[in-house]
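tool=predict chain=A
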Amino acid sequence: MFFNRVGFPVPTGSITPGVNGVNGNGASGTNGAVGLPQNPAENRPSSAEGAGAGKSEESEKALKRLGFKECETCKRRQYQDVSNDPGVSFKTPTHVSPEFAAMAVAAHEQEHVLHEQASAKLEGREIVFQNVQISTGVCPECGRVYVSGGKTTTVTRKAAETAPPQAPGLIVDKFI
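tool=predict ok
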């Protein structure tokens, strides 16, 4: 009995997927879960002419996912703010590398949070709820998971009016 990279036992003769879809034996697999045995019949092409094309396409995708080859889709991906908030970044389409996209989108959404807090304070409103959602997607060319955008939600209400504090002795101050 063999053990895969994660430490799970693997019966002899099965193919185990490794990191990023590349199997422990060097071939690409269709099962992307790490450590789960895979049916070797799933990787066999149905005809002789499809054998080279399917394998090279899978290995090409694996090389792109690992960063050894450049993915054109990720290279051309741009981010742009579609809100009506004029003081935030990404007002024009901007390229951000997939490695830094999560940080850039989170920082951008934080700008929205701060602007909403400032405008609520100026308008005399209080913030009831704020939420930031970061969404992800999967690149169709290389299979990498990337940050596809973000959304900030802010709920405010009119600030509760409080009576001005009374000076001692204006009404009745009597201690017994």
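Helices lie at 48-66, 72-76, 98-122. Strands lie at 2-3, 9-10, 78-79, 94-95, 125-138, 145-158.
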